[in-house]
Amino acid sequence: MSLRLPARLLLLGAPGSGKGTQSSRLLKVFPQIDALSSGDILRNEILQKTPLGLEASKFMQRGELVPDSTIVGVIASRMKREQTSADSGSWLLDGFPRTKVQAEALDGMLGHEQNINLVVELDVDQDVILQRIESRWVHPGSGRVYNIDYNPPKVPFKDDVTGEPLVKRPDDTAEVFQKRLDSYNTMLHPLKEYYSGKDVLVSLKGNTSDVIFPQLKSLIEDRFS
Ligand code: AP5
């Protein structure tokens, strides 16, 4: 589906709210959108055992946020490399910015003309999220996400594309997951305030599989096509 105006999107939501899942579905409908997930970038660095990955994994294993200065540097260089900040196209950020400091840094990097023009909060009940995390399995090489009830792999516990084994994310244990939720809840209010002040924040509520996606798709069509 084509878009007449550039969509510069941020998906905001608690861990497990479905940001990655909604992103993949959106990219199938709007293939012209470039997507960047801070969590996927960090997990890839960990997989490759880079200095950044080693540093980030200490925080991620504890369910804490990676320091603002580190993540801002990573995203800045990635956006520069992929030229998402330079072209006039459409892009989608998942997981960044996550604090007000990061939001201000991103605005500084992009400049007024290129700022985020739609922030969508995925508002999912947190008890629903906890159930989903128990059923989440991932393919570490690609970041593809499955859920044994909602979107199971074709062959149990194997990636659909490579056939490689799926694993549990190390930060999906009950204790670490609770810390990630707490951290999200602490950061959410200032971040929402920041984007409401810019008049770009929309909240979509839904707990069941296909409630949020049609709303998200229509929102993007209405605003940008
Ligand atoms: P990140 O990877 O961003 O993790 P997160 O925000 O905790 O989000 P998740 O990936 O857990 O969940 P999701 O919302 O994408 O849900 P999903 O689609 O998988 O970050 C990880 C860590 O990296 C952070 O803790 C932090 O340490 C660090 N980090 C990252 N960015 C940072 C930043 N900017 N600053 C500092 N540190 C940063 O869905 C969840 C499950 O539910 C799946 O199994 C899925 O199949 C299923 N599901 C999805 N939608 C539905 C549905 N509608 N119905 C039923 N099941 C569903």
Core attributes:
globular; single chain; binds BIS(adenosine)-5'-pentaphosphate; 225 residues; Rossmann fold; two-stranded antiparallel sheet; alpha/beta
| Ends distance | 9 Å
CATH-defined fold name of the domain at 8-124 and 187-217 = Rossmann fold
The largest beta-sheet arranges its strands as 2-3-1-4-7
Any ligands, ions or cofactors bound here, and which?
A: BIS(adenosine)-5'-pentaphosphate
Q: What percentage of amino acids are in beta strands?
A: 5-15%
For CATH, the homologous superfamily of the domain at 8-124 and 187-217 is named as: P-loop containing nucleotide triphosphate hydrolases
Q: Topology of this protein?
A:
Elements: E1 8-13, H1 19-29, E2 34-37, H2 38-47, H3 51-61, H4 68-82, E3 91-94, H5 100-110, E4 118-123, H6 126-134, E5 136-138, E6 145-147, H7 174-197, E7 201-205, H8 212-224
Parallel strand pairs: 1-3, 1-4, 2-3, 4-7
Antiparallel strand pairs: 5-6
The chain binds BIS(adenosine)-5'-pentaphosphate.
Characterise the protein shown here.
By secondary structure, the chain is an alpha/beta fold. It has a domain of 148 residues: P-loop containing nucleotide triphosphate hydrolases (Rossmann fold). 46% of the residues lie in helices and 14% in strands. It is built from 8 helices and 7 strands; from the N terminus they run βαβαααβαβαββαβα. Strand 5 and strand 6 form a beta hairpin. The model has no long low-confidence stretch (mean pLDDT 91). BIS(adenosine)-5'-pentaphosphate (AP5) binds next to helix 1, helix 2, helix 3 and strand 6.
